[in-house]
Design goal:
alpha/beta, Molybdenum Cofactor Biosythetic Enzyme, Chain A, Maf protein, 6-stranded mixed β-sheet, 5-stranded mixed β-sheet, 15 helices, globular
Length: about 425
């Protein structure tokens, strides 16, 4: 089966937006043992888009068009496909239902610009978009299945799994079954993971494909087998992988680290409080981004200054003077103070030097202390991440959450996180 990709948008041509969507589509096509044979990127030019659609459709079994479905005048995909197919644009009733449903759920009043997203080529079928206002749509052209998708990555990804792949399978009469296990891991690098696999599983069979995809801060592992009889083989090697790397597995499919932490809190009936300094509320934002977080989170304190640490969390001035804000003693007092102030069951505290300034020979930029646990069982650990400020904050926040996840699930907390960063080991 020949599959082509057509990416559209002046922002792609100018470099203002980096094309990541074609990589996402291509990787997803592997689930059907398929690869695109051609990719074309064009700007917002109606004539060029129309010519490109006609040319690619004549050479392809499937053409996936990405971008140009929005409400503005430079969103030309519907008009271009209609011109290529020689059909008029018309208000699509199913697209209107979806657009009205999207607006109603958000208390949004549709404007004429929004209604443009329901004006589609005559005879097309809509492709549901569970996250955005613009539905996708498909049309047969020169015996080619043309599918148009939004350029917003967060909207595209669920549409690929739920809508595009099933349509491609049906169009190509693909009957071979692909079995895929997706696992999500945190705390180990790709190279470290591959080295361990090579050492622990020298007998890993060639017919069981192992794929890696970094989705910071986690790594997605995809274990794939092809064929109706390969399900048992897939399950066997997935279980062997899970057994060896159980400490690092945060979940399956699309599990996020914040989701894994909240799940652990809920399963153990614990309510969390946070005391953040160098991460500036990043952990609290992550925890509360998950549905149901109100059941496991009560309060967060962003105590960036020493004065705030003293006033809000009761950290003693003497401790700050003697040991400094980035110290074991201070993060333990931050955690204890947050527990007392909030009435929570368990705390996580963090204080570090994000840089680029503020370091010293004893505490260079990249030093961070974390404390976590219940009031009578607080523990602390020091790390060193000599990376840029934003990367430091994100890495520190992710590791802090994982430490608490491990604590709750009775897993080791002395894990050697990301050894390439040359951080310290447990104190």
């Amino acid at each position: 089966m020949k599959i082509s990709l057509l990416l559209t948008g002046n922002e792609l041509m100018s470099g203002d937006t980096i094309d990541s969507n074609s990589a996402v589509i291509a990787k997803s096509l592997r689930d059907l043992a398929l690869l695109p044979f051609k990719k074309l990127v064009v700007g917002d030019d109606l004539e060029l888009l129309t010519e490109s659609i006609q040319s690619l459709a004549q050479k392809s079994d499937v053409l996936i068009i990405n971008g140009g479905l929005g409400p503005t005048v430079d969103d030309l995909t519907a008009e271009a496909l209609a011109a290529a197919a020689g059909v008029p644009i018309e208000r699509h009733p199913d697209a209107m239902i979806e657009l009205e449903k999207w607006a109603r759920a958000r208390g949004f009043v549709l404007t004429e610009s929004n209604l443009k997203q329901a004006d589609l080529p005559q005879g097309c079928e809509i492709i549901l978009n569970p996250r955005g206002s613009a539905v996708g749509f498909s049309l047969m052209l020169h015996d080619c299945l043309v599918m148009c998708t939004p350029g917003v990555p967060s909207e595209l990804r669920p549409m690929i799994e739920q809508e595009l792949l099933p349509r491609i399978r049906q169009h190509g009469a693909i009957t071979t079954t692909t079995h895929i296990s997706r696992l999500r891991m945190f705390g180990i690098t790709e190279s470290g993971l591959q080295d361990t696999i090579n050492r622990v599983f020298p007998d890993w069979p060639a017919e069981v494909e192992l794929g890696f995809r970094v989705q910071m801060p986690v790594i997605e592992i995809k274990i794939s087998t092809i064929g109706d009889s390969s399900l048992a083989l897939n399950r066997h090697w997935t279980e062997r992988f899970l057994a060896h790397f159980s400490d690092y597995i945060i979940g399956r499919d699309s599990t996020r680290l914040t989701q894994a932490l909240n799940t652990a809190l809920a399963e153990h009936g614990k309510v969390l409080t946070l005391a953040e300094s160098c991460t500036g509320g990043l952990i609290a934002a992550g925890v509360t981004s998950e549905p149901g977080s109100s059941a496991v989170f009560t309060a967060g304190y962003v105590t960036y200054s020493n004065a705030a640490k003293m006033q809000m969390l009761g950290v003693s001035e003497q401790t700050l003077d003697q040991y400094g804000a980035v110290s074991e003693q201070v993060v333990l007092e931050m955690a204890s103070g947050a527990l007392q102030a909030s009435g929570a069951d368990i705390a996580l505290a963090i204080s570090g030097i994000a840089g680029p300034d503020g370091g010293s020979p004893d505490k260079p930029v990249g030093t961070v202390w974390m404390a976590w646990g219940e009031a009578d069982a607080l523990q602390a650990r020091k790390f060193y991440f000599p990376v840029a400020r934003i990367a430091f904050q994100r890495t520190a926040a992710a590791i802090a959450m994982d430490l608490l996840r491990r604590q709750l699930n009775k897993l080791p907390t002395d894990v050697d996180y990301f050894s390439e960063l040359k951080k310290t080991t447990q104190r």
